Amino acid sequence: MEADQVVKALAALAHPIRLQVFRALVVSGPPGLTPGVMQEGLGVPAATLSFHLKELAAAGLVSTERASRHIVYRAAFERMNALLGYLTENCCQGAGCLVETKAEAGCGC
Questions:
Q1: What is the CATH number of the domain that holds 42?
Q2: Is the separation of the CB atoms in 79 and 22 below 8 Å?
Q3: How many domains does the chain have?
Q4: Which of 27, 61, 81, 97 makes the best surface tag, with the fewest CB within 10 Å?
Q5: pLDDT tens digits, residue range 6-51?
Q6: How many Cα neighbours within 13 Å face the side chain of 71?
Q7: Is residue 77 part of a domain?
């Protein structure tokens, strides 16, 4: 990931509603969520949710897919993992890190 992409992703997550939406999508996993389900679960007005989903999509943190009459939003796990990788690339001063990643723990993210 390039530095400008990292800044854009972090800026997108630096809003309480967008962070809440992104975390809900991460929890939902590969099946994703429709805006209606997110709106109901998060208590966010439709127009507000739409704006924040657009910002997350512009940062590459969510993907969309049309399923019949609905749009399904999913967390972009590869992008999320690339962001985490960028942030931790030089942790532990370049030595082997003692922190076990979710992938190593068998998370499957």
A1: 1.10.10.10
A2: no
A3: 1
A4: 27
A5: 999 999 999 999 999 999 999 999 999 999 999 999 999 999 999 9
A6: 10
A7: yes
Q: Which 3 state secondary structure label does DSSP give 40? A: helix
In a domain, 109, yes or no: no
Q: What is the SS3 assignment for 65? A: strand
Question: In angstroms, rounded to a whole number, what is the distance separating the alpha carbons of residues 66 and 12?
Answer: 23
Looking at residue 97, its amino acid is C
Nearest CA among 76, 66, 59, 81 for reference residue 10: 59
Query: In which residue are the tokens 């969510």 written?
Result: 62
The range of the structural domain enclosing residue 16 comes to: 3-94
Number of residues that make up the chain: 109
The verdict on residue 56 lying in a domain is: yes
* Calpha distance 27→17 (Å, rounded): 15
